[in-house]
Design brief:
The complex is a heterotrimer of chains A (300), B (315) and C (323). Chain B has 11 helices and 2 strands. By secondary structure, chain B is mainly alpha-helical. In chain B, a hairpin with a 4-residue loop joins strand 1 and strand 2. Chain C has 2 domains: 51 residues; 244 residues, MetI-like (MetI-like fold). Classes of the chains: A alpha/beta (300), B mainly alpha (315), C mainly alpha (323).
Chain lengths: 300, 315, 323
């Protein structure tokens, strides 16, 4: 098929084939700046930061004045009642909101200190650095291999050997390799829902993002699959900055290091950030009455 | 039926829904209605069979007296007993191919624009425009071709200005809405989640289309083109007014020639005997061609259904 | 299965500073390539966007050209009552298209009266009263095949079957029956689509109240599907109005007097334009007559086309809660 043709194609990027392969053998340099602290003693450094973020669809304001940090290499959960705009918030982080007609963003979203909404900011680069996993597993109707190779191919990786390594390593990191290594050529749609979602995570990992956004990634999954994904997130946070939106407070409490609580005052008013802090603090000792009401189930 | 009656029925024993006829004739009425509706539905099948039977019956003399070898030859001169239809077959193929070459890219481009690039207001406006274009009668397109396109071709290319080129252009306009609408529908039927995933990885709209959406919609797009081809094969008036006509193989794109449909239309009124019968033979061949295309489209749509539910179809 | 069989040990996660600084990690590789790929992709996007936008623009221009030219050349003539309602002339100037206009409307009405009940009934059978089986497959196959057949074939079939075999002669009825067969698939399709779009809960509510299938269909399903059916029917009427190839040998292409009986020959406008094209030389001002007739026909067809959408809206509004 098409790969044979591509295999023949010479690698055009600097360096020989061997050098590239060697690099792929040790793909560990995922941690960019701030890596020197080492795992375990992570500094509270903000990978991203929302400053006065507002969002409106046409005349309708969805989010207003959100100020919130996203600490590097940890899991930040965004919780709140349905319809509070938490998914929209997530989509502001990699500018996916631009695909909605009439969407308008105010304020700033900083990634490593740079405003991603600044004029001339490279959106393609942004989306490579900030990957996204959706609510419903949405693998492409292609083979498992092609799903994971999609991103690297998009960025011009054509050499089969390099792709093979990337696919394997991504699937390993997504804890899916052992289940699919013998059927990489079969359709991704033949996998179970939980496997599909992990494949979507592998697809994102394949482009080595710095931040991974997850939009209620487990809402369509059974408890066992959910458990596997949560375990996976725990492993991944050593290497990536993770933001997860969830309406499941137990999940937020289980997996996240930091939690932001967003809510709306009434139907139709914009969502606001009520509280942000370390998850343990937010759940055991909330500063705001609204947070406490929500967490204890008195509201929402 | 009064409301309180309904309530009484519902309050009765837990009989199966709608199975307790209060009116003894009700069940019979239901059967009669079912039969009447079934007969309505069978009209289309009956009509198709009648068409095939009568076309075949009328074409019998041609098959019997002239023979298939004569019919599938290239010489047409009924007064000498030659009934070769190859000229018209070639003409039909040429104008259909020509119309696809001109019309399909335009239509597919429009479909992709409507699916991925247009703002909602333009989407509505151009979508509506395509509906209107589909409704423009073929005789009007033919007339317009005859009064504007033919003189234009004559001025720039000489000759009569009639032939395969103007016919292809007119046909391209006719099949444009057919292809564009169906192709757009099949693009829209691809789950948005695929495109979203692709865009979220930094793909551009075109990359997303090329790598995800278009491959997923491919059977539908192909079906759209085939249906367009079907329309081009069968079109009569618009072609007849700009193709010449002349019973001769086309020397180039602007010499008058004939297609199956134009030949049938122009000679049916003034022919008798085997000559007339051979026109019916042409109709039968055309009918077989279009039914073959419909069969192709059905195969493709079956594939689409299989493809979306899994399987290696898209790889 | 792809040729992927190599298994390699899970690589160690390399956290060394050196690997980072060299920028030659997996991410480094992607970053390096992505810059070039992105530039290429931006280019391709620009070109693709241009091509698609241009295609759409060309389509629009073509439509505008067609409507503009036809109306510019003929609307003046068409709006003249002495042309629109006048008597046609064969060898003199100044003929009108009165009988042709009447024929078109008559034929459209006659065809609709036959094809709509038939098509709606057939669609109701397919959507509400049948189960997928051999019979339904046969009907669908027949309908699809019918919809693919060229109109000139319908025309010559109508000629041998209705005109000659059933001895209707060249007549509105023969034409109407031919057009019925031709438009049956469209009416069936739009009706079935609208009927299937009615939520199942409507039916369940009615059936659970003890109504029979037919009562449910009549009182619940059909009213809810009416806007969609109306749109489809009016669009089909526009199509009937514009049909010519199927009518040349079933209805006729030229008459002097207004046809009153459905068994009389007639000359719908579309077919009459064909007459003028082929016998043009007989009419001194054929260009004027054909242009005027084309414009009148186009206006009528456009009217039906635009009315289709508007009517559905009106019905929806009248029924209020139904939709």
């Amino acid at each position: 098929m098409l790969h044979e043709a591509e295999e023949k194609e010479e690698e055009t990027v600097k360096g020989t084939k061997e050098a590239i392969l060697e690099v792929i053998e040790r793909p560990g340099d995922n941690r960019t700046e701030g890596g020197r602290e080492g795992i375990g003693t992570r500094a509270l450094e903000n990978k991203m930061e929302l400053i006065g973020l507002g969002l409106s669809y046409g005349d309708r304001k969805v989010l207003e004045d959100i100020n919130m940090p996203i600490p590097a290499r940890s899991i930040t959960a965004v919780i709140g009642p349905s319809g509070c705009g938490k998914s929209s918030l997530l989509r502001c982080l990699n500018r996916m909101n631009e695909l909605v007609d009439g969407a308008r963003v105010e304020g700033k979203v900083l990634l490593d200190g740079e405003d991603v909404y600044a004029n001339g900011f490279d959106v393609v680069g942004l989306r490579r650095r900030v990957g996204m996993v959706f609510q419903k597993p949405n693998p492409f109707p292609k083979s498992i291999y092609e799903n994971v190779a999609y991103g690297p191919r998009l960025y011009g990786v054509k050499q089969r050997k390099v792709l093979d390594r990337i696919v394997e390593e991504s699937l390993r990191r997504a804890a899916l390799w052992d289940e699919v290594k013998d059927k990489l050529g079969s359709s991704a749609l033949s996998l179970s829902g939980g496997q599909q979602q992990r494949l979507c995570i592998a697809r994102v990992l394949a482009v080595q993002p710095e931040v991974i956004l997850l939009d209620e990634p487990c809402s369509a999954l059974d408890p066992i699959s959910t458990q596997r994904i949560e375990d996976l997130l725990h492993e991944l946070k050593e290497l990536y900055t993770i933001v997860i939106v969830t309406h499941n407070m137990q999940q937020a409490a289980r997996v996240s290091d930091f939690t932001g609580f967003i809510t709306i005052d009434e139907q139709g008013s914009p969502g606001r950030l009520v509280e942000f802090g370390e998850t343990r603090e937010v759940f055991t000792n909330p500063k705001e009455k609204k947070t406490e009401d929500y967490i204890t189930g008195r509201f929402g | 039926m009064k409301p309180h009656l309904k309530r009484e029925e519902k309050a009765g024993p837990p009989a199966p829904v709608a199975a307790g006829p209060a009116d003894p004739l009700r069940g019979q009425k239901e059967t009669v209605v079912r039969w009447v509706l079934r007969l309505c539905a069978l009209v289309s099948v009956l009509g198709l069979f009648l068409m095939v039977i009568f076309l075949f019956r009328e074409s019998l003399p041609a098959w019997r007296e002239a023979g298939a070898a004569n019919i599938f030859s290239s010489e047409w001169s009924p007064d000498k007993g030659k009934y070769g239809i190859l000229i018209f077959l070639v003409g039909t193929m040429a104008v259909s191919t020509g119309s696809l070459i001109i019309g399909a890219p335009l239509a597919l481009g429009t479909a992709v624009y409507l699916h991925a690039y247009a703002k909602p207001s333009w989407k509505r406006f151009i979508g509506r425009g395509l509906e209107v274009l589909a409704g423009v009668p073929s005789i009007i397109l033919g007339w317009l071709g005859f009064t504007t396109l033919v003189p234009l071709v004559r001025r720039f290319a000489g000759g009569t200005g009639m032939g395969i080129l103007p016919a292809s252009i007119v046909l391209a306009v006719m099949i444009l809405p057919t292809i564009a609408t169906i192709a757009r529908d099949s693009l829209e039927a691809v789950p948005k989640a695929f495109a979203e995933a692709s865009l979220s990885m930094g793909a551009t709209r075109w990359q997303t289309l090329r790598r995800v959406t278009i491959p997923a919609a491919w059977p539908g797009i192909l079906a759209a083109v085939i249906l367009g081809l079907g329309r081009a094969l069968g079109e009569t008036m618009a072609v007849a007014m700009v193709i010449g006509p002349a019973t001769a193989f086309p020397k180039n794109l602007i010499t008058p020639t004939h297609t199956l449909t134009t030949k049938i239309m122009l000679e049916m009124g003034e022919s008798t005997g085997v000559h007339r019968s051979s026109l019916f033979a042409m109709a039968l061949i055309l009918l077989a061609l279009s039914m073959f295309l419909i069969w192709l489209v059905r195969r493709l749509s079956a594939k689409t259904i299989k493809g979306t539910s899994g399987g290696a179809f898209y790889c | 299965m792809r040729g992927y069989s190599r298994t390699i040990a899970k690589p160690e996660i390399n956290t060394s500073e050196a690997g980072l600084k060299n920028g030659n990690g997996w991410r480094g590789l992607l970053e390096k390539k992505a810059a070039r790929a992105a530039a290429r992709a931006r280019w391709a996007e620009r070109v693709a966007s241009f091509i698609f936008r241009t295609s759409a623009a060309v389509s629009l221009v073509v439509l505008a050209f067609i409507i503009g030219t036809i109306l510019a050349r003929g609307l003046g003539t068409a709006l003249d009552p002495s042309f629109l309602f006048g008597k046609p002339q064969a060898l003199k100037e100044g003929g009108g298209i009165g009988p042709m206009l009447f024929s078109s409307l008559y034929l459209t009405l006659l065809t609709s009266v036959i094809v709509v009940p038939l098509g709606v009934g057939a669609a109701l059978y397919l959507a509400e009263f049948s189960r997928e089986g051999r019979l339904v497959r046969l009907i669908r196959w027949g309908t699809e095949s019918l919809s693919s057949i060229s109109s000139v074939i319908f025309g010559i079939f109508g000629m041998v079957f209705f005109v000659i075999y059933l001895r209707f002669g060249y007549s509105l009825l023969a034409g109407a029956l031919t057009l019925t067969l031709m438009n049956l698939p469209t009416v069936m399709r739009v009706t079935e689509e609208s009927v299937r779009a009615v939520p199942g809960s409507y039916r369940e509510a009615s059936l659970s109240l003890g109504a029979s299938r037919w009562e449910t269909t009549k009182k619940v399903v059909l009213p809810a599907a009416l806007p969609g059916i109306t749109t489809g029917v009016v669009l089909t009427m526009g199509r009937i109005m514009g049909e010519s190839a199927a009518l040349v040998y079933t209805v006729g292409i030229f008459v002097r007097k207004i046809p009153l009986s459905p068994l009389q020959p007639a000359a719908p406008m579309a077919a009459n334009i064909w007459h003028i094209y082929t016998e043009g030389a007989l009419i001194p001002d054929w260009m004027r007559v054909a242009s005027g007739e084309a414009a009148a026909l186009l206006v009528l067809v456009l009217f039906f086309n635009l009315a289709a959408g508007a009517l559905a809206g009106i019905i929806r509004k009248k029924m209020g809660i139904m939709n």
